[in-house]
Design a protein that fits this description.
This protein has about 425 residues and is of the alpha/beta class. It is about 40% helix and about 15% strand.
């Protein structure tokens, strides 16, 4: 295997330089192919093994970390597993750690809204009132937890507990014939009237006298927060964060995100993970004079259209190049991408990938897209050999070539058998 760590492997005879200043291209890759076509074994693993920067890797079955983790550790990487499948084997991921707080104790409002939007997305397009109102409630409670509780209790589990307190106090007030309100937030309004928690609370307080309306809002909020009651959620989301996204721009780290391809209950948290990762990495880059991370960071978004929905991804992917951040968007077809995003948004994502690796498939829309780029008949694209690939690079003619044989690489260090050893991050000692 080629071990030039400043290059990426796309096909047997095609490599791509990672220096965006030298190439004038971004480092975003679009990988398209059906199951078994070699997306993981012929693209993801070979490129991880010769990575030159930090990595965030979608690892659906946990196999990637087992295979390449020991080799990356030998090369000086800090390895972490955020395990949404088996939280007992996970590093801690606390989304509330990424809410900035100023010297006066005021939260950064946009950081709170980002989390609330992930937990309560717009699901009822025709009647957004319930989602919008429930999101306002969640915003208030997240801000309250950050503003009032001690650092060790600032997590999503506490947000769930505070919501239970809100519901209990509201019911007590309502049943006793008193003003429809939440006493602990009323008390906080006296102490900190300029609080973001208070501001959001006051926005929904007007709905509280209408019992049925408030019940609808509360049930929507409850559905978003129920998941944090489980023991596994406390393990995953409670406690001190094991790492910070900003670390990836300063030292070589590999974060493997183990997500389920059958259980969708934690999808919103996975989406939040990617959203926060990109936001925090951009924010970290902007601290530097040249607005670039010291160490490049790549996100491998395997099974992208089934495992993640990143809000405003079409906008984000267009601005990360200058910050030394790149993504590999890995799909089975373009049609699959359009099940997650509308057509203009999906095409914006595709157009911001200067390198496309097509490994075959039966999807007609994808074949027509490749046919136009490669100037080949659609029939030839649909009937391409199983060992062949089209590589399309912006500014060049499409290449029809041999794909990298899946799993044909050599692992310098034998694979690990157990993900639990990466639970808190295993560090290679530096001399």
């Amino acid at each position: 295997m080629n071990e030039n760590f400043n290059e990426r492997l796309l096909a047997q005879d095609i490599t791509v330089c990672n220096d965006t200043i030298a190439t004038g291209l971004n480092n975003n890759d679009l990988i398209v192919g059906p199951s078994g076509a070699g997306k993981t074994g012929g693209y993801v693993i070979p490129n991880i093994l010769q990575a030159d920067g930090s990595l965030i890797v979608a690892d659906t079955k946990g196999n990637l970390c087992r295979k390449v983790g020991p080799t990356l550790r030998q090369r000086g990487y800090d390895i972490y597993v955020v395990n949404f499948v088996n939280p007992d084997q996970s590093c801690t991921y606390n989304p509330l750690d990424y809410i900035a707080v100023d010297e006066k104790g005021r939260v950064r409002e946009q950081d709170v809204i980002t989390i609330a939007k992930a937990l309560v997305p717009d699901l009822t397009k025709n009647d957004p009132f319930w989602d919008t109102s429930a999101r306002t409630v969640v915003c208030s409670l997240i801000a309250y937890v950050k503003e009032v509780l001690p650092p060790e209790e600032q997590n999503l589990n506490s947000v769930s507990e505070v919501f239970k307190l809100m519901s209990s106090q509201y019911n007590e007030q309502h049943n006793s014939g008193n003003e429809a309100c939440v006493p602990f937030l009323e008390e906080w309004a006296v102490v900190r009237p300029d609080s973001f928690a208070v501001k959001k609370y006051q926005m929904v307080k007007s709905s509280m006298p209408a019992e049925k309306t408030w019940a609808g809002i509360a049930s929507t909020a409850a559905a978003a927060l129920d998941i944090f009651d489980f023991r596994e959620a406390i393990q995953l989301f409670g406690g001190k964060h094991s790492f910070h996204f900003g670390d990836l721009g300063h030292r070589k780290c590999a974060v493997f995100l183990n997500v389920s391809d059958t259980d969708r209950s934690l999808d919103r948290l996975v989406n939040l993970f990617y959203t926060q990762a990109l936001q925090m990495l951009c924010r970290e880059a902007d601290k530097n004079p040249d607005s670039r991370l010291e160490i490049p960071v790549r996100l491998y978004l395997d099974d992208f259209a089934t495992n993640a929905y990143i809000p405003d991804f079409d906008k984000t992917i267009s601005i990360i190049r200058s910050r030394n951040i790149s993504v590999s968007v890995i799909l089975q077809s373009l049609t699959q991408l359009e099940t997650m995003y509308d057509h203009p948004t999906a095409m914006t994502i595709v157009n911001n990938c200067d390198h496309i690796l097509y490994l075959g498939g039966n999807d007609l829309k994808t074949a027509e897209f490749i046919s136009a780029y490669a100037d080949k008949p659609v029939e030839r694209v649909l009937c391409m050999g199983l060992d062949k690939a089209f590589v399309i690079t912006r500014g060049k003619k499409a290449a029809y070539t041999d794909k990298i044989k899946p799993y044909s690489f050599h692992l310098p260090v034998p694979e690990s058998k157990d993900l639990s050893e990466w639970k808190t991050g295993i560090y290679k000692e530096r001399e």
